[in-house]
Amino acid sequence: MSSYRYFEEYDQPVTDSLIDNYSNILSTIGEDVSREGILKTPERAAKAMQFLTSGNCQDPAEILKSAMFAEAYHDMVIIKDIELYSLCEHHILPFFGKAHIAYIPDGYIVGLSKIPRIVDVFARRLQVQERLTHDILECINDTLKPKGVAVVIEASHMCMMMRGVQKQNSVTTTSGFRGQFEAIETRSEFLKLISNDLS
């Protein structure tokens, strides 16, 4: 029976450069980079950083375009509670939470899995929550050209929880609305639906 083997592809020159940089960082803060527990940490960190910023190399608009379908549906489509994990660009610490996204089609719908995928693409970059919200909103609006788009993100930020003010229970909410969601009635319907448990 063959042993388990986990394989991921990484750009080797980038990985090697990051390994050197992480080794220097660990040495500078007083760690012994030769001890068993730390020995492979620079390589693990190098690969983790490439994964966590892999959105820089992906085009979210092309992801949406790959699954657009002509459909005469003109009511609200909501995908809520989409998990997201990102890195704050100010401290390179994680922030995490969920996104709620809705759009009102205007001739085209998009495969449901593509909405969470573009959330991941934008989240896997050094980010701030405000820009993340805007990036997702404008990508859907510009690519799908619906009658309206709404995005709400709720996230906890480790830069607030682990350092600085150290407030463990704070949650940051950002939102953006375009088209028909700029009308109070439509926006209120969306906000009510993402707040209610419909099951």
Describe this structure in words.
- The protein has seven helices and seven strands.
- By secondary structure, the protein is of the alpha+beta class.
- The strands form two sheets. A five-stranded mixed β-sheet has the order 5-2-3-6-7, sandwiched between helices. Strands 1-4 form a two-stranded antiparallel sheet.
- Helix 1 (12-28) crosses helix 2.
- It is elongated, with a radius of gyration of 20 Å.
- The model has no long low-confidence stretch (mean pLDDT 92).
Give a quick set of tags describing it.
single chain; 199 residues; alpha+beta; GTP Cyclohydrolase I, Chain A, domain 1; GTP Cyclohydrolase I, domain 2; five-stranded mixed beta sheet; two-stranded antiparallel sheet; 7 helices; 7 strands; elongated
Q: What number is the mean pLDDT?
A: 92
Per CATH, the class of the largest domain reads Alpha Beta
The percent range for strand residues is 15-25%
Sheet with the most strands: spatial strand order: 5-2-3-6-7
- What fold name goes in the CATH topology slot of the largest domain? GTP Cyclohydrolase I, domain 2
Report the CATH superfamily of the largest domain. Answer: GTP cyclohydrolase I, C-terminal domain/NADPH-dependent 7-cyano-7-deazaguanine reductase, N-terminal domain
> Which architecture of the largest domain would the CATH scheme give at its second level?
2-Layer Sandwich
